[in-house]
Specification:
The complex is a heterodimer of chains A (about 100) and B (about 400). Chain A has about 100 residues and is of the alpha+beta class. Helices cover about 20% and strands about 20% of the residues of chain A. Chain A has three helices and five strands; from the N terminus they run βαβαββαβ. Chain A has helices at about 10-15, 30-40, 80-85; strands spanning about 1-5, 20, 60-65, 65-70, 90-95. A five-stranded mixed beta sheet of chain A has the order 2-1-5-3-4, with helices on one face. Chain B has about 400 residues and is mainly beta. Chain B has a four-stranded antiparallel beta sheet, with no helix packed on it. A four-stranded antiparallel beta sheet of chain B has the order 9-10-11-12, with no helix packed on it. A four-stranded antiparallel beta sheet of chain B has the order 13-14-15-16, with no helix packed on it. Classes of the chains: A alpha+beta (about 100), B mainly beta (about 400). The interface of A and B includes residues 7, 45, 47, 48 and 51 of A.
């Protein structure tokens, strides 16, 4: 079971609280996680990656195991700890300040 | 007694503000969609409890929300299990899928080169006059989309971008389609306005379009002041009973057409400045119009720090300042293009929101004003529903 942590605005949109748990078939990649997430919560489609190109939205980041996976290939394997459910896959809104 | 429901979009959420027909005591509910930019909310004229919302974010993109109970509850259309089903058995969730039709094509970029159209957000939603499931959506980069299934799916009306779209160029605020006007006497006629491209009209239900900018002059913005396209139109409005008469607030100049946009003439008259964003027409007096003069295109605040709505009862040229109840010193807010509207009561009620978070209301044709909200986030849009 893959654990996913959504940013607050997307938790509100998807009407979930806390972590989301997803069944993701091997190989577990960022793309596979997002596909599973959007299938379960279709209202999230287009909010993390472009609807047409499926490229990550500029202000959305993917973190796991204290690593920034945002600029890695969406088809790379996620860290083993994420694949086993020991660690969550974090979807984060990029910092904005003023 | 009638009821008034204001739909207020702000930089950080939507607010629903209600009153009875006396329009004296107001109740504010919100924020809905807190933290998101709400460019526009608008209710269906034939089913007022059906309200559509454009919810956007630089982080998470475009969302469309819909209420079927007058704003009490909201859902992105097509995301309930009983809605459209995909092959995997789940809802398709296509309510925020705005894809340009066919070849994307290019428009003019700031540096003069051609650049592909790229969807950014929906600025304006205009529900059909006779079908609650049909809505038109004005996009940035400028295009017109339409749903006929209550917002579950959207299709572009691509003929619009064929109207010299390669010459359209964004202004500082982006290249947005912000105004959609229907003609009650001719269901096939749709008029839209785009910054910075101008006004365009279709007489066949949106299939084909042509620019209707004759008479507009942009001597400080365009190398050819009389260009067929390229004018920075900020807002147009029409009285429902007179479909041939259009009023326009352009970047500079307040304009009028008496032939459905075939030609325009200036009616700025004695305004202290003819720059501004919204324009509105009184429900009961088709020749009574309202603008909010703003000092200049680089100083987006009222002249002299005085917030004044100007009213013309002669269809333009002769204007009077309406100041009672509005701040007359140290006021440096702006009023954006979709942030002024009129109700359908008699006397006509007017409402506008400011970038300072105030919402002002008048229940007497603009003669006097009160603030009904004072500390909201910057207001992007104000629409009103007059409920029986």
């Amino acid at each position: 079971m893959i654990r996913v942590v959504l940013p607050a605005h997307l938790r509100t949109l998807a009407r979930v609280k806390g972590e989301v748990q997803l069944e993701v078939k091997d190989p577990v990649t960022p793309r596979a996680i997002l596909d599973a997430l959007e299938t379960r919560y279709p209202m999230l489609r287009g909010t993390m990656r472009d609807r047409g190109t499926l490229k990550r939205r500029a202000f959305v980041r993917f973190f796991a195991c204290e690593q920034d996976l945002s600029n890695e290939s969406p088809d790379d394997l996620v860290p083993e700890a994420v694949a086993t459910g020991a660690e969550p896959f974090l979807i984060v809104g990029a910092m904005a300040g003023g | 007694m009638s009821q008034i429901r204001l739909l207020v979009g702000t930089r950080k959420g939507a607010f629903v503000i209600t009153s009875d027909g006396k329009r004296q005591n107001w109740d504010i509910v919100g924020p809905h969609f807190g933290g998101w930019e709400i460019y526009h909310l608008k209710g269906s004229p034939v089913d007022p409890n059906r309200i559509y919302v454009s919810q956007t974010s630089s982080w998470f993109g475009q969302i469309v929300q819909r209420s079927d109970d007058g704003g009490k509850t909201w859902d992105p259309p097509g995301t309930k299990p009983e809605d459209l089903m995909g092959p995997d058995g789940m809802p398709k969730g296509q309510s925020n899928m705005f894809v340009y039709d066919g070849e994307v094509g290019t428009h003019k970029w700031y540096d003069g080169t051609q650049r592909p159209w790229e969807f950014k957000r929906i600025w304006h939603l205009e529900p059909s006059l006779n079908d609650p499931n049909t809505v038109y959506a004005g996009a940035e980069d400028a295009a017109l989309f339409k749903t006929t299934d209550g917002g579950r799916t959207w299709k572009e009306l691509p003929g619009l971008r064929h109207a010299k779209g390669q010459l359209w160029q964004p202004g500082a605020g982006g290249m947005c389609l912000h105004t959609i006007v229907f003609d009650r006497s001719n269901p096939e006629r749709i008029t839209v306005a785009i910054s910075a491209a101008g006004v365009f009209r279709s007489d066949d239900g949106g299939k084909t379009w042509r620019p209707i900018n004759r008479g507009l002059k942009s001597q400080y913005e365009l190398p050819d002041p009389d260009a067929e396209v390229g004018h920075c139109v900020h807002c147009i409005t029409m009285h429902p009973s007179r479909s041939n008469v259009l009023f326009m607030q352009k970047h500079w100049d307040v304009m009028r057409s008496d032939d459905a946009g075939e030609s325009w003439h200036e009616i700025s008259g004695n305004l202290p400045t003819d720059f501004g964003f919204p324009i509105a027409v009184n429900t009961n007096e088709p020749e009574t119009i309202y603008v909010v003069p703003i000092k200049s295109d680089s100083e987006h605040y009222p002249p002299d720090g005085k917030l004044r709505v100007y009213r013309s009862r002669t269809g333009g040229r002769e204007w009077e300042a309406l100041t009672k109840g509005l701040p007359q010193r140290d006021c440096y807010v702006n009023i954006l293009r979709d942030a002024m509207t009129v109700d359908s009561l008699d006397p006509c009620g007017l409402y506008f929101g400011t970038t300072g978070g105030q919402v002002y209301a008048s229940a007497n044709n603009g003669d006097s004003w009160t603030h009904i909200a004072r500390d909201l986030p910057p207001v992007l849009s104000v629409e009103v529903q007059t409920l029986a």
